């Protein structure tokens, strides 16, 4: 069956374990005789099984143990080791690049969806100060077809989850918006997160709900009508992602620390300066101004959201949104929504 060899046990160890499971406990002499093994082979096999938590001693007999708990614990430990290895690789790689840049790749081309997703999570996981991102939302299929929600929900779930969902979705069904793995852990750990979202994302109520939840957890979010790409920038890595080719949903470029990494951070800061806060600050003492709900309405209008999207967010009808906009226009003496935005900006309402 060769089930235990991948875990470091020998074929003989698996043979011994299956014999004990089927026939019950016995000693080393009986095992050697029945299975036609040498004394050393039995000794090595039983040691392997004890190391895996699959075997215990009862007197001179070897007692087989249930595999589920032992192997689940082993799997969890291997996961922790893999996580530690990935983190060490990124951090030591960054140190190596700083000392030997002429020998280090500045840009790596990622051609598989799973690679893009893992590198997006790694970019976040290896950052201890602040992660910044541009987000056009999840990417569905060929280049140029973004369709959804979070910093970079271009890699919107773990590799196994994403591949399962991709195979079960119809070609016309958009990728469901999800929080990028690692974002919530980063926020919980005190890492700053700033994101500029394309306004198209927020026209999906489920995407808006996810974004607002992240804001509640500490994310700072802004909206800009024409965000051009999905970009995540951490301390030592940056990831640009786009649609993949063939059967792959995603492709990407992983950028290591250096001049290009710095310029990508600068690109984000340019969009951040132009974008509108998604959740405006509450009004404070000062000249009379709009209430918090009107400020939120103005922010949504400035972000380019449709009346239908704003209505879904505020829990009212599009007709009510139209009426409130008309009231604000009248209040500020604006003949158009453009003039309304200008007047609101002049008064510090945005």
Automatic annotation (TrEMBL):
Keyword Glycosyltransferase among record annotations: no
Biased composition (Low complexity): 151-172
Region named Disordered: 135-181
GO biological process terms held by the UniProt record: regulation of DNA-templated transcription
Domain of life: Bacteria
Signal peptide limits: none
Pfam families named among the record's database cross-references: GerE (PF00196)
Record key words, sorted: DNA-binding
Gene3D superfamilies referenced in this protein's UniProt entry, alphabetically: Winged helix-like DNA-binding domain superfamily/Winged helix DNA-binding domain (1.10.10.10)
GO MF annotation terms: DNA binding
Residues of the HTH luxR-type domain: 288-348
Protein name from the UniProt record: DNA-binding CsgD family transcriptional regulator
Organism annotation: Terracoccus luteus
């Amino acid at each position: 069956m060769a089930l235990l060899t991948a875990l470091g046990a020998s074929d003989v160890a698996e043979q011994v374990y299956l014999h004990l499971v089927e026939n019950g406990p016995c000693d080393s002499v009986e095992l050697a005789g029945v299975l036609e093994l040498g004394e050393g082979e039995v000794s090595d096999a039983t040691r392997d099984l004890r190391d895996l938590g699959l075997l215990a001693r009862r007197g001179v007999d070897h007692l087989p143990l249930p595999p589920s708990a032992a192997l689940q614990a082993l799997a969890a430990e291997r996961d922790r080791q893999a996580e530690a290895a990935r983190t060490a690789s990124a951090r030591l790689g960054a140190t190596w690049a700083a000392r030997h840049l002429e020998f280090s790749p500045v840009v790596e081309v990622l051609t598989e969806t799973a690679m893009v997703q893992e590198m997006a999570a790694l970019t976040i996981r290896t950052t201890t100060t602040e992660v910044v991102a541009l987000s056009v939302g999840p990417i569905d299929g060929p280049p140029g077809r973004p369709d959804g929600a979070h910093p970079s929900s271009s890699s919107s779930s773990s590799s196994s989850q994403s591949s399962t969902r991709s195979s079960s979705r119809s070609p016309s069904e958009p990728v469901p918006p999800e929080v990028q793995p690692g974002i919530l852990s980063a926020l919980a750990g005190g890492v700053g997160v700033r994101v500029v979202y394309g306004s198209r994302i927020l026209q999906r109520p489920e995407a808006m709900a996810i974004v607002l939840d992240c804001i509640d957890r500490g994310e700072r979010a802004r909206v800009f009508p024409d965000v051009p790409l999905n970009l995540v920038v951490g301390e030592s890595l940056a990831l640009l992602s786009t649609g993949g080719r063939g059967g792959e949903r995603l492709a990407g470029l992983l950028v290591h620390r250096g001049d290009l990494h710095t310029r990508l951070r600068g690109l984000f800061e340019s969009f951040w300066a132009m974008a509108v806060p998604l959740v405006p600050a509450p009004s404070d003492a000062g000249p009379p101004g709009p209430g918090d709900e009107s400020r939120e309405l103005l922010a949504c209008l400035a972000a380019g959201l449709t009346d239908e999207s704003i209505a879904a967010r505020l829990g009212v009808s599009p007709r009510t949104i139209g009426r409130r906009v008309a009231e604000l226009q009248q209040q500020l003496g604006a003949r158009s929504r453009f003039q309304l935005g200008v007047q609101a900006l002049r008064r510090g309402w945005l």
